[in-house]
Specification:
Layout: E1 2-8, E2 16-22, E3 29-39, H1 41-48, E4 68-75, E5 87-90, E6 93-94, H2 100-103, E7 116-118, E8 121-122, E9 129-133, E10 137-139, H3 146-166, E11 173-177, H4 181-192, E12 196-200, H5 204-211, E13 217-218, H6 224-232, E14 237-242, H7 247-256, E15 257-265, H8 277-282, E16 287-290, H9 296-309, E17 317-321, H10 326-334, E18 340-344
Parallel strand pairs: 7-8, 11-12, 11-14, 12-13, 14-15, 15-16, 17-18
Antiparallel strand pairs: 1-2, 3-4, 3-9, 3-18, 4-5, 5-10, 6-7
Bound molecules: zinc ion (2 copies).
Length: 346
């Protein structure tokens, strides 16, 4: 057992540094010395929530953060795939490992009540030590930084999984709505594939940031439909990925897609959307899909792909903080800071 100082969310948009006991690894567990921990929109929900982020008992505060990367510090007696000193990133959803969805590599849709998230049920990466199951780990190649690893652990693999579902190829036109961290990651990956990426976001600063990561065209807010017509010769985009969860953006993706188009919804939003399936889906032979985080295999695949191609998602990070500045970091993020924020530990 080692006690460390980590960042907790007591509730009502507050953060607090707390002492956390991180046990030595059980037989199938690994303890990680965390080097980087991303801040994600999902963490913001915990930060804002009246009750903050607590263990399943509803009382105990836990360390937040679900995008960790670091170095294996100690391993349990039954761990065979990883050793002390290995550089790793963590898939933040821990499923039961045995249900049909876990067997498909999708712990995010695990059917068991045992499904839990690091930084969402048990301690996460906003602390310098993190205890995880071996099966949650992915090896981080030497050529990628720890911040690269933290980006892959949630946002980049989420973007990659959504991008795969669109089936876009070089030269295709892709609309991306919402230029938060996931939209930026989609833009970075797609632009590097040779895809013509068209972006939409009500925040001009976010569009400007996306342009730095390969966005080919930023839609103006005034007449997106006419602009899309002009850009696509009236054919519509080949595919669209909705990353904001906002109702107008969800509708825009359906409207912008041409015949045979593919639309992937990955941004979380709770408002209902009303549209005509006959005109927008049926008569356009559209494919509409949902996407949520990624499979273990996709996360591993995008890690290797980035290492091979030399694309560094740490370029998406606009600000880094140490845990002591956690309050400022979360305030900045909640206020709509552009790019991605992350904690780094020395
Ligand atoms: Zn996340
Ligand atoms: Zn499961």
């Amino acid at each position: 057992m080692t006690t460390v100082t980590g960042l907790a969310f007591p509730g009502e948009s507050t953060v607090a540094l707390r002492e956390f006991d991180i046990p030595s690894p059980g037989p199938t567990e690994v303890r990680i010395s965390v080097k980087a921990s991303g801040i994600c929109g999902s963490d913001l929900h915990s930060y804002i929530a009246p009750s903050g982020l607590r263990a399943p008992d509803g009382t105990t505060l836990i360390a937040g953060g679900h995008e960790p990367a670091g170095v294996v510090e100690s391993v349990g007696s039954a761990v065979t795939g990883f050793a002390v000193g290995d550089r790793v990133l963590v898939h933040h959803i821990l499923g039961c490992g045995t249900c049909d969805n876990c067997r498909r590599g999708y712990p995010v849709v695990c059917r068991s009540a045992a499904r839990i998230a690091y930084g969402g049920g048990r301690n996460g990466g906003h602390a310098p030590l993190l205890l995880v199951e071996e099966r949650s780990l992915i090896l981080l190649p030497e050529t990628l930084s720890f911040i690269d690893g933290a980006m892959i652990a949630c946002g980049v693999s989420t973007a990659y999984s959504a991008l795969l579902k669109t089936g876009v190829r070089a030269g295709d036109r892709l609309l991306v709505t919402g230029m938060g961290p996931v939209g930026l990651a989609v833009t970075l990956l797609a632009a590097n594939m040779g895809v013509f990426v068209i972006g939409s976001d009500p925040n001009a600063d976010r569009l400007a940031e996306a342009t730095r990561h390969g966005l080919a065209h930023a839609l103006s807010a005034t007449d997106a439909a006419a602009e899309l017509d002009a850009l696509t010769g009236g054919f519509g985009v080949d595919a669209a990925i909705e990353c904001s969860g906002a109702v107008p953006a969800r509708l825009l993706c359906l409207e912008a897609a041409g015949t045979w188009g593919r639309v992937v919804y990955v941004g979380v939003g709770r408002q209902d959307l009303t549209f005509s399936p006959t005109d927008l889906v049926l008569k356009k032979l559209l494919t509409v899909r949902g996407s949520w985080v990624s499979s273990m295999a996709e996360m591993e695949e995008v890690t290797r792909l980035l290492a091979r191609t030399g694309i560094h998602p740490d370029s998406l990070v606009s600000e880094t903080y140490d845990l002591a500045a956690g309050e400022e970091a979360y305030r900045r993020f909640a206020d709509g800071a552009t790019g991605k924020l992350a904690f780094v530990y020395t």
